[in-house]
Amino acid sequence: MDEEAPLLNGRPPSSQSTINNSKLYLAVFSAVLGNFSFGYSLVYPSPVLPKFKSSDADPRLKMDAEQAAWFGSIYSLGAAAEGLGAMLLNDLVGRKLSIMMSAVPSTIGYMLLGGAADLWMLHLGRFLTGLAGGMTAASIPVYISEISHQAVRGALGSCPQITAVFGSLVLYAFALVVPWRWLAIAGEVPALLMVVLMAFMPSSPRRLLYLGREHQAEKALRWLRGRHYDTYIELSAIQHSINKQTKITLSQLAKPIYYRPILISVVMRFLQQMTGITPIMVYLEPIFAESKVSLEPRYDAAIVGGVRLFSVVMSASLMDKAGRKALLYTSSMLMFLSTLTLTMISHTTPCAPGPAPPNLTALNCSPHDDFTLQASHKTAAGLIPLISTVVFIFGYAMGWGPITRLLMSEVLPLVARGVASGLCVTVGWLTAFILTHAFTHMVDKYGLFVPYLLFAVVSVFGLLFNAVCIPETRGRSLEEIENYFRTGRMFTVNENPSTMQSSWTS
């Protein structure tokens, strides 16, 4: 270290620095409880929709095809709306407070679902839990990325996806034994626990430095890294990056350092949702019922939830070993092969054209009689839709699920990270809303063949986009990634980051 470099606490930075990530893991755990609630609420319609469509359903809560489509999709509309709000909240009140605030609409939404006496309460409850999902989706990945050391950022960046998947699995498991109203009440617990724990966690050191709060930034970073960690080098690199940045204007968006990472993140969010993951997860049990697989739909859903959890855990373990791009290639190929198989199967078992029968959604229409893939036939062919869906979920959760969120938090420039992450979430959830709402109508008119074919084509586009546009960020600091987009050719930060003010040490 240069002798003229600023001193930290009256001394040069130490060459011996030991990281203790235990408190970092606690902070990440506290934050991702919001993702658990998100995953839980997202798939809530899967086990409860059949109850609202059954002949013995409460007349006040009974749903037809259009009402069921809104119940399934309005969550995404709420998430998209809050994505717009997160564009302001992330930079106005910070990542930490944005995460904590998500518990308000989440708790109110679950209360409406659990105590619903009319359809409007069900729809409003879904919309509010969607608002909470949009807040967490825009804030938690950014918070985790900014508090994590680059050596573990890849694995920790997968935690939001893992806990969201675990939340979905818990919902599927509870639905086997718990009434639908109690499913909603149970969903309030993780959101309330998140608020309590997050109150004791630090704010992002990067945001604190950006606001000029050097003392608080050093205190937060030392808390996250351990008392024996020398914070000087990391804080200097962060400050060096911040010093290069100015308030972004519309004219500056034409510069590659801004438009390239933002465009990559937005397109990845769009393609992520166009793979069909949201309608498949939301309507999982009705889809299995329509596909006539050999097992009961509720058990099929639980199996898929378990496989999804296993695959995201595997992805987290490989994130910093195999790299982001390799996992995205694998993900796209698995999704393409599985959706192509589902396309061919569903093409031979189309739903009859025309409107669905009364009290049934399009996902409950019957296949033609010329194909005899019935649940009573305990054949291997009867398991093909289940196996293909499992492969699709496995592929998505290996790559396009967690890596899309991780890359968004890695590549977006700090000066625009709050607004840009909100934009990405909004684009993703608007796409999810349109696709989820249209899904039942597509199935009603064309059968499962058309949506599955669309998802297969999107998987090919995702493969090509990864090959041409997405950089490999494994093992790179956020400052190195930002320099890559600044120069367009290299990750290395050549400048000496010794411009860090020593004011935080006085």
Give a structural overview.
- It is globular, with a radius of gyration of 24 Å.
- It has helices at residues 22-42, 45-53, 65-92, 95-101, 103-114, 119-147, 153-157, 159-175, 180-186, 188-198, 205-210, 214-225, 232-243, 256-274, 277-282, 284-291, 297-318, 324-347, 384-398, 402-411, 417-446, 449-469, 478-487.
- It is an all-alpha fold and 506 residues long.
- Mean pLDDT is 79; it is low at 1-13, 349-362, 364-378 and 493-506.
- The longest helix is centred in the C-terminal third of the chain and has 30 residues, at 417-446.
From the helix content, strand content and strand pairing, which structural class follows?
mainly alpha
- Largest pleated sheet: none
Q: DSSP strand (E) fraction?
A: under 5%
Task: Please tell me what the overall shape is.
Answer: globular
Order of helices and strands: HHHHHHHHHHHHHHHHHHHHHHH
Radius of gyration (CA) equals 24 Å
Mean pLDDT: 79
Distance between the termini: 20 Å
Provide the helix percentage: 55-70%
